[in-house]
Design brief:
Elements (H helix, E strand, L loop, with lengths): L2 H6 L29 E3 L4 H14 L2 E5 L5 H16 L2 H4 L13 E3 L12 E5 L8 H6 L7 H26 L6 H6 L3 E9 L11 E4 L5 E6 L5 E5 L2 E4 L7 E5 L1 H6 L9 E3 L7 E9 L27 H10 L14
Parallel strand pairs: 1-2
Antiparallel strand pairs: 2-10, 3-4, 4-5, 5-12, 6-11, 7-10, 7-12, 8-9, 8-11
Helix pairs in contact: 2-6, 3-6
The structure holds N-oxalylglycine and nickel (II) ion.
Pfam families: 2OG-FeII_Oxy, DIOX_N
GO molecular function, one term: metal ion binding
InterPro entries: DIOX_N, IPNS-like_FE2OG_OXY, IPNS-like_sf, Oxoglu/Fe-dep_dioxygenase_dom, Plant_2OG-oxidoreductases
């Protein structure tokens, strides 16, 4: 039963299917005062490159401010997502998809076959760029009416920011700025709108269970309600993003390409009892049937042997969706 129907029934306790085997909040309060790195994108380029390189090594997570994406564009996208979720269930179900594999746009409540269900529903848009292309227009919901325009403007802006960040990440690895993008041949861009409704017993559930993102790099915005946590040195740290900041995290493909120099960060989202949280994740990824992803030869030498098998992104996603996406379990499958 979807979360919103449970809430409409006025439940005061969470059904079995949503209850985590180990209470998620216990033992996770440590380190809450630590803040993930904040990087100002108007600093001199050398400073940005160094700050990003450090954040990638230490955290796999950071937030950017003064990033050049207009707040009005972000707000328009958050509103479009909210308006989608506010549509009658019957309308949303027109977009229902059981498996968010590449090339599928879909509304759903779960993305794998795990026995415990996350406290969320989501809309996945598999193709976001270029926004004016017919393929993207087709993959975009036509309800609510302003969704297409808002998402086109948002994706255009996020695409520019994503590419800029990939150039900094490349340089931070000691490579040419266009090295990562060139190796992908074509930069794919998809998007996930998450809704986390209030939960009567938030301490028993996860809004989104622990995972690493399978793609190269992800950008995230939310509506200001906290919930996201990142695992750092064994402790779950709540991300308190600054107003207007965009949260950036490294995915598994970047860990592979960097030969483990940069780690994909394990993260999750907690539920809360008061407010609905919306988040929008933009995923930058290799084309599904594109080039094999492997450590850059420049980063592999006698002392640092290649740690990963070469893998095609479509095959990687198949492991991701089959493995229930828990913790770092996916990338270990392609470790040598
Ligand atoms: C994701 C994700 C975190 C959040 O969609 O991959 O990690 O805070 N979202 O919603
Ligand atoms: Ni994620």
């Amino acid at each position: 039963i979807p979360v919103e129907n449970l809430l409409a029934q006025g439940i005061t306790s969470v059904p079995e299917a949503y209850i985590q085997p180990h209470p998620p909040i216990y033992g996770s309060q440590r380190g809450n005062s630590t803040q993930i790195p904040v990087i100002d994108l108007t600093l001199p380029e050398e400073e940005i490159t160094d700050a990003i390189a450090r954040a990638c090594k230490d955290w796999g997570f950071f937030q950017v401010i003064s990033h050049g994406v207009a707040q009005e564009i972000v707000d328009g996208m958050l509103q479009a997502a909210k308006d989608f979720f506010d549509l009658p269930m019957a309308v949303r179900m027109k977009y229902f998809s059981a498996t968010p594999i590449p090339k599928t746009t879909g509304y759903s409540v779960r993305f794998d076959n795990s026995s415990v269900v996350d406290w969320r529903d989501f809309l996945f848009q598999s193709l976001c760029y270029p926004p004016c292309s017919d393929a993207v227009k087709e993959s975009c919901p036509s309800d609510p009416p302003h969704y297409r325009d808002s998402s086109a403007r948002y994706c255009e802006a996020m695409h520019d920011l994503g590419r800029k960040l990939l150039r900094y990440v490349s340089r931070g690895l000691g490579l040419e700025s266009n090295r990562i993008e060139q190796s992908l041949e074509e930069l794919h861009h998809s998007m996930l709108m998450n809704r986390y409704l209030p939960c009567p017993q938030p301490e028993l559930v996860l809004a989104l269970r622990s995972h690493t993102d399978p793609n190269v790099i992800s950008l995230l915005v939310d509506n200001g309600v906290p919930g996201l946590q990142v695992l750092k040195d064994g402790a779950w740290i709540t991300v308190h993003s600054l107003p207007g900041a965009i949260v950036v995290n490294m995915g598994d493909q970047l860990e592979i390409m960097s030969n483990g120099k940069y780690k994909s960060a394990e993260h999750r989202a907690l539920a809360n009892s008061d407010s609905t949280r919306y988040s929008i994740a933009s995923f930058f990824e290799p084309p599904p049937a594109g080039p094999l992803i492997a450590p850059f030869p420049e980063l592999v030498n006698a002392q640092e042997e290649s740690q990963f098998q070469a893998v095609c992104y479509r095959d990687y996603l198949a492991i991701f969706f089959a493995k229930q996406a828990s913790g770092k379990s996916v990338i270990t499958q392609v470790k040598k």
